[in-house]
Amino acid sequence: DIQMTQSPSTLSASVGDRVTITCRASQSFSSWLAWFQQKPGKAPKLLIYKASSLERGVPSRFSGSGSGTEFTLTISSLQPDDFATYYCQQYKSFPYSFGQGTKLEIK
Amino acid sequence: QVQLMQSGAELKKPGASVRVSCKTSGYSFTTHGISWVRQAPGQGLEWVGLINVYSGNTNYAQRLQGRVTMTRDTSTSTVYMDLRSLRSDDTAIYYCARSDWLDFWGQGTLVTVSS
Predict the structure, then answer these.
(1) In chain A, which ranges are continuous DSSP H helix?
(2) How far apart are CA B94 and CA A39, in angstroms?
């Protein structure tokens, strides 16, 4: 099974900051990684699929990169609406798995 | 527009079973699998399983193997998740989502297991 480890668990940042969240996989694979944003009381929202493809309607300040065992989600300039919890998910092989989440807080 | 509409909240006793439904619309049902994800209170996301709605083939999380079954009804574009022998740690919001990469989500169904 592929284990996904996200870091950091919590991130404090300010509006306008550039932030990066990392997801490390226990086995190497290319592309089959998604990133989600979740706000309290809401279903998660897909941001990035296939590691770097921006989902339709998602602002371009979000970007994804990586392959092998290290993947990153970058927000180029934080906006007030971006403070939420973020998850990565691998869909390379069953059982699919999520990272434990990164809570992005206002500094 | 793509929509996934889930059944309502459930309160079950330990040892009972629950069925959660996910009715889809706005796309061709058999072109995308349906995944299930759960989230215990205050916790992260946990992948539960996936059904290929074209073939009916399923894949489940190991820890739920033997207690979970996913089925589909192509005539109503609906997917079902059955979970048996419920325990208190099955208390969670259960989400259905389209495809392997979860591009569209249902609103979630709270399943509470309590005596």
Answers:
(1) none
(2) 16
For B97, what's the count of Cα atoms within 13 Å in the CB-facing half-sphere? 24
Calculate the alpha carbon distances from B61 to B14, B74, B88 in Å: 20, 24, 18
CA distance A51 to chain B (A): 11
pLDDT digits (tens, 9 = 90+) for B14-66: 999 999 999 999 999 999 999 999 999 999 999 999 999 999 999 999 999 89
Quick one: closest CA in A to B44, which residue?
A100
Q: Which of A82, A68, A3, A1 is nearest to A37 (CA)?
A: A82
Report the helix count and the strand count for chain A, using DSSP H and E: 0, 10
Considering only CB atoms, which residues of chain B are within 8 Å of chain A? Answer: 35, 37, 44-47, 49-50, 59-62, 95, 97, 100-108
